[in-house]
Model the fold of this input.
Amino acid sequence: MKSSHVFVLLWLSFSHVALSTLATDDAAALKKVWQALAGNALYWKGTDVRVKPCNAADFTGVACGSGTYSIVLSRTLVTGGPLDPAIGSLGPRLLSLTAQAINLNGQLPLSICNLTNLNQLTISGNPSLGGVIPSCLTSLTALTSLTLSNNKLTGGIPSDISSLYNLKTLILGFNVLNGTIPNMSTMTNLTSLDVGYNWLINTNNVVSLPSSLLSLILTNCSISQPLMGLLNNTISLQKFNGAYNHWSGTISGISSLVNLTIFSCRVCSLSGSMSEISSLALLGNLDINTNSFAGVVPPLNLSFLTSLNLGFNNLGGILPPSIFFQPMLSTLDISSNNFTSIGFDSSHVSLTSTLATFSAPGNKYLTGSIPLLVGNYTKLTSMDLSFTLATDTAPPYPPSMPVLNSLTLSGTAVSSFPAVLNNVTSLTSITINNIFTVVNSSMYQVAHPNLRTLTLYANGIAGSTVDISRCPSLATLEITTCTNIVSIHPSNLQSQSLTTLRLSGNKIASFDPTATVGSSSLTSIDL
Ligand SMILES: *[C@@H]1O[C@H](CO)[C@@H](O)[C@H](O)[C@H]1NC(C)=O
Ligand SMILES: *[C@@H]1O[C@H](CO)[C@@H](O)[C@H](O)[C@H]1NC(C)=O
Ligand SMILES: *[C@@H]1O[C@H](CO)[C@@H](O)[C@H](O)[C@H]1NC(C)=O
Ligand SMILES: *[C@@H]1O[C@H](CO)[C@@H](O)[C@H](O)[C@H]1NC(C)=O
Ligand SMILES: *[C@@H]1O[C@H](CO)[C@@H](O)[C@H](O)[C@H]1NC(C)=O
Ligand SMILES: *[C@@H]1O[C@H](CO)[C@@H](O)[C@H](O)[C@H]1NC(C)=O
Ligand SMILES: *[C@@H]1O[C@H](CO)[C@@H](O)[C@H](O)[C@H]1NC(C)=O
Ligand SMILES: *[C@@H]1O[C@H](CO)[C@@H](O)[C@H](O)[C@H]1NC(C)=O
Ligand SMILES: *[C@@H]1O[C@H](CO)[C@@H](O)[C@H](O)[C@H]1NC(C)=O
Ligand SMILES: *[C@@H]1O[C@H](CO)[C@@H](O)[C@H](O)[C@H]1NC(C)=O
Ligand SMILES: *[C@@H]1O[C@H](CO)[C@@H](O)[C@H](O)[C@H]1NC(C)=O
Ligand SMILES: *[C@@H]1O[C@H](CO)[C@@H](O)[C@H](O)[C@H]1NC(C)=O
Done:
């Protein structure tokens, strides 16, 4: 009984000595790190960080386990500075370090490689942090998550990065890393990889990645291998962004990536058909702007699609009307393709579309009446049909666009102001430039209660500027470079809402300032 008491007391006092020695050292190291960052002393004043539970008031941002720490350096408490090499003396006791947007400068200290049990390292958003990724970092095999994005790190990605066999997340985007993407095919725990927007050049390198990836960002990596050669292996992929590379080939086989929710590949040198997209049932966001996809767009029925960008390809033929009625679609961009018409399906008249933005400019063979659409567009706020053959003949059904506020019809086949639009009372901005057919300005029957901006640049309008007396909210009227316009319509000078009138490049002979009535709101007239 007695002896066991003595033993317990001895054990307690020995362990106490051991603990407090280490604790003092760790506390001193932590204070050095804090001081180097010009942290507020009030938040980092403790002496013994190994006492449990952690005293958050003494070491703000340090969480303690049993003899271990996790550190979050907060931007609200430090001013900035280098990461002090003293961090390394925490050795195997530091499990997690986060330093996001705290104005770190200098370089990553080599002593960081002494943190042998680190499983999470996040140092991001510090644009003054330069230097290389220390090659010894690949000895920290406990790492499951390594994030070094949005700094100014130089040099290459360590060629033996795959030594970090426990890594699940590797995020290195937005630095100035050069060289190639190392072979990562054996990193079969890796689910998220982002090396985008660096200075990597993979022109003569075949990128090899593990099949475990769920999220992959390879933007602007100068990759020039066939896209599907890479993706046919990453079969579980959910999010892919491969924009700004010289991928070659088609997307044939992509239907095997059944879990894709985001497929983004702007400026990717891809060609062929896009029809397999229709079988990606979980797709939420498709962006293939600026490629060479050709052929037709298949009918789609994608329950989760919210954004579809097909702009700047060679797609043509009839755009299936079902596209406009994807149950969640909000943004549709088909600009600069070769579509000839939008299909008409009377069954859609009874449907309600969720579309908010529709952009179709630059389809120079696209015919149809405005609004080109049938159905109920209860959420459509913006529509751009410029440089198409859209006309102002009556559509098959009157438009139902109760919240449309921005409409652009430049360079279309409308012959005058489309009267059909006068029922769309929600419009706040109308732009109709570059229509050279000469029409008497009296043909412009503009009557919009909420219109604030009317832009008519380089038009064949003849006679006076347009009558705006039925536009009580109009604030900006631009009728410039219309060489058949010789006078200002009196309504322009009498308006009580107009503040800016731009009339340069017309043939208006003279301007009589006394024509403005006393109550005119005009603050700027540009002749
Ligand atoms: C590395 O960790 C050990 C053990 O904690 C410590 O003795 C040593 O000083 C550390 N080295 C550096 C460079 O921080
Ligand atoms: C993946 O992680 C587990 C658990 O940490 C580990 O046992 C395994 O070796 C890792 N896989 C590979 C291929 O390294
Ligand atoms: C990468 O950049 C470093 C300077 O940061 C330079 O010394 C090295 O030669 C570059 N490597 C390649 C492969 O361009
Ligand atoms: C791609 O990266 C290069 C530097 O390697 C840069 O000059 C270029 O502007 C980037 N392109 C895009 C589209 O961001
Ligand atoms: C990448 O490494 C794997 C496994 O070592 C190997 O089979 C594959 O050929 C490598 N890829 C390239 C492009 O060298
Ligand atoms: C993946 O694509 C490459 C290159 O296109 C091809 O050689 C390989 O057979 C494909 N693998 C599968 C499983 O489809
Ligand atoms: C797709 O996701 C489901 C649900 O998470 C999963 O069961 C399935 O294995 C995944 N398919 C592939 C090919 O990874
Ligand atoms: C679209 O798919 C849903 C189920 O995902 C189905 O209920 C609906 O009938 C389909 N619509 C069309 C027009 O095929
Ligand atoms: C675009 O469509 C028009 C009209 O159908 C056709 O004459 C023209 O050849 C097509 N151009 C391209 C590049 O496909
Ligand atoms: C359009 O949809 C709205 C809301 O779903 C509904 O109130 C309205 O009656 C519909 N209009 C037409 C013409 O179908
Ligand atoms: C505008 O609406 C009125 C009443 O709702 C309707 O009689 C008229 O036909 C509509 N005009 C156009 C051009 O759709
Ligand atoms: C425009 O039409 C009006 C009558 O509607 C006429 O008085 C005027 O001369 C015409 N102007 C031009 C330039 O044709």
Notes: The longest helix spans residues 2-36. Residues 235-236, 258-259 surround 2-acetamido-2-deoxy-beta-D-glucopyranose (ligand 7) (CB under 6 Å). Residues 1-21 have pLDDT under 50 and may be disordered. The helical segments are 2-36, 227-231, 490-494.
